[in-house]
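Subgroup meeting minutes
Present: P.N., E.W., G.H.
Scribe: E.W.

1. P.N. recapped why we're keeping a running log of single-chain structure predictions: easier to compare across weeks, and new members can see raw inputs and outputs side by side.
2. G.H. added today's entry (280 aa).
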Amino acid sequence: MRIGRFEAEDETRIGVFTDDQVRDVTSEFEDFQDALSRPHDADGVDGETFDRDEITFKPPTTDRNTVFCAALNYEAHAEESNIDVPERPLVFMKLARTLVGHGEPISYHTRVTQEIDYEAELAAVIGEPARHVDPEEALDHVAGYTILNDTSARDLQLSLQVGDDEMLDWFSGKTMQRTTPVGPSVVVDEIDDPQDLAIASRVDGETMQSDNTGMMIRSVADLVSFVSSRVRLEPGDVVATGTPEGVGAFQDIKLEPGETVEVEIEDVGTLVNTVEEADD
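Output recorded in log:
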């Protein structure tokens, strides 16, 4: 099953997605958090059906949720970044207003940043509240998996000078409005092992990253457990698990308005977005 959020006829709805269509199951649930806590209750809902090209995909989370992102979680990416692997997970957060859905534009002001980058990531979407869960139990709290493109403004992230020290500016580099694609939907009960999935990114059809989630330093279960030790995870919260090597910053590649970025993860799907100049 693939469950997510979409907009049709000026309404935001909850849907069950197939390759070609989406079935509206909004009537069964109080909200999307409720849907993630009991997704299979959507099976018997006979809702209105839309073709996928008739809808707007929305991020498969809610405005009340938080996106937690693991940094430097593939050893080869840490090496290309010339940064030692941290002794414990390094996690930053994104605001809901940072997110866009599949097919929506990645909107940057080129007067603010000139170095836009891509990062392919597998993301776990929480289905049951989790607080201080052990890694062995952590995946029981995951509703399913989606894709996150941790699009980053490298010239802002990597250029902050504080006295004699260079610091990473996570907020400016990672959290600007309408810059982080997530989706297309949440894959429920179809992935037996999140640590054995091919992951890739492409820019205008050219492969930039190609790896396997088995190369993570810390597993999905480890990351969910770690975040739950700091805060209570709620249905709809997203835990993104880091990116493999091959990001643009270390290949002298930057995204330009008009270019299309695809992130594909085996058994999860393909997240596609085009870069454009922001108008707000």
